[in-house]
Amino acid sequence: MKTYNYSELSSAEIQKLVQRNVDPANEIRTIVEDVIANVQQHGDSALLDYALKFDKVELNKLYLEKAELEEIAQAISADQKAALETAYSNIYKFHQTQLKTEDKVETMPGVTCWRELRPIEKVGLYIPGGSAVLPSTFLMLGIPARIAGCHEIVVCSPPQKNGKVNAFIASVALMLNIDKIYLAGGSQAVAAMAYGTASIPKVDKIFGPGNQFVTKAKTIIQSTTTTAIDMPAGPSEVLVIADDSAVPAYIAADLLAQAEHGIDSQAVLVCTSAEIAEKAIVEVEKQLPVLPRAEIAKLAIDNSYVVITDSLAEAMSFSNQYAPEHLILATESWEQITGSIINAGSVFLGNLTPESAGDYASGTNHTLPTSSYARAYSGVSVDSFVKKITFQHITREGIGNIGHTVEVLAELEGLHAHRNAVSVRINN
């Protein structure tokens, strides 16, 4: 891991350092645009071709129904099922509290305003299934969708070599009372949910993380169709802030936990001394070779780096510029610096709070903004699956109280029909 001294970096160098997953030559965009156009034009036929090309499987149909899911799910052990159920319970408890009824507000006598929640009718969940199958992502998306009350939940996940889905994905589908999974992955799955095909319904909003191709597809369809997206959630990343109270073995484990996601993942260590950095790097080199996904993790680590700062305040300053998906405060002094966090997707406090806990079972959502999008986006929540519609009601007293204000404002904007809509009521 390349090491930088924060005090020696210019503003331009910092900005270059925090950039990731860029596509300066539009190579990814060009490929994805072709895929989207092909799916839009040829529908199921294109999806079957892509399954053969990318997933190396020849499909007879593009979905699995409930009976097939039940059969597949029987392969999981009792211990594995119990772990999924514990995760389900914790995630449900945390997200259920987000569904709140707001109070009505009387802004002036006789004028009452309020908001009510309505679920998004049709949502699409993309569950990655490339180098790692992620039933945890299915839980993170499916649970808040169910809590919100979405009427139709369309699930797409890449087919395995046997033309089916992983047993854990099937098990989660049954837990969420989802009767069908569509066998499509990558940018082609995003296109299918955005435009609809003979097999896959068009949805109103697409959720789920993915690689750079999936992320690019989501950003393209958001600007070219009526389908919205949750956020640009691309390759995973972590930034660890550590001081002398940190445990190097824990730091290394957290860095590698992100690195094993994929070769385009990034793990950044920001620490207050070169000594901590050296010890952590030694631990990375010790832990890396024994990982089953060592080759993937090594390439991600090669794409990662260390920044040495003079203080935790400097470390936090760099972190806010990086705007990490996951931020770990590997310090016993975390309470002193949490107030300085401006940009982060999800934060893990202290030496005993690994990011893996949030990935699986603590209760918070792991579908988070990456690539600095934490500057403007929040992670997925129940709010992501609902619309908040405003209401207002005006009484006879209220139109008398607010009427003149509206008349004056409408007239100064030159919108006399607006003024008249109030005047006719007052005059009556």
Question: How would you characterize the overall build of this protein?
Answer:
With 428 residues, this protein is of the alpha/beta class. The chain folds into three domains: 27-102 and 120-230, Rossmann fold (3-Layer(aba) Sandwich); 235-375, Rossmann fold; 395-427, no CATH class. It contains 16 helices and 15 strands. The chain has a six-stranded parallel β-sheet, sandwiched between helices. A six-stranded mixed β-sheet has the order 2-7-6-5-8-9, with helices on both faces. Strand 10 (237-242), helix 10 (248-259) and strand 11 (266-271) form a beta-alpha-beta unit. The longest helix is centred in the N-terminal third of the chain and has 19 residues, at 78-96. The radius of gyration is 25 Å and the shape is globular. The model has no long low-confidence stretch (mean pLDDT 96).
Main traits of this protein?
428 residues, alpha/beta, Rossmann fold, 3 domains, six-stranded parallel sheet, six-stranded mixed sheet, 16 helices, globular
For the sheet with most strands, the description reads: 6 strands, parallel
**Spatial order of the strands in the main sheet?**
1-12-11-10-13-14
Q: Give the CA-based shape.
A: globular
- The helicity comes to 40-55%
Mean pLDDT: 96
Can you identify the CATH superfamily of the largest domain? Nitrogenase molybdenum iron protein domain
Q: Which fold name fills CATH's third level, the topology of the largest domain?
A: Rossmann fold
Rg, Cα atoms, Å: 25 Å
Quick one: CATH class of the largest domain?
Alpha Beta
Distance between the termini: 76 Å
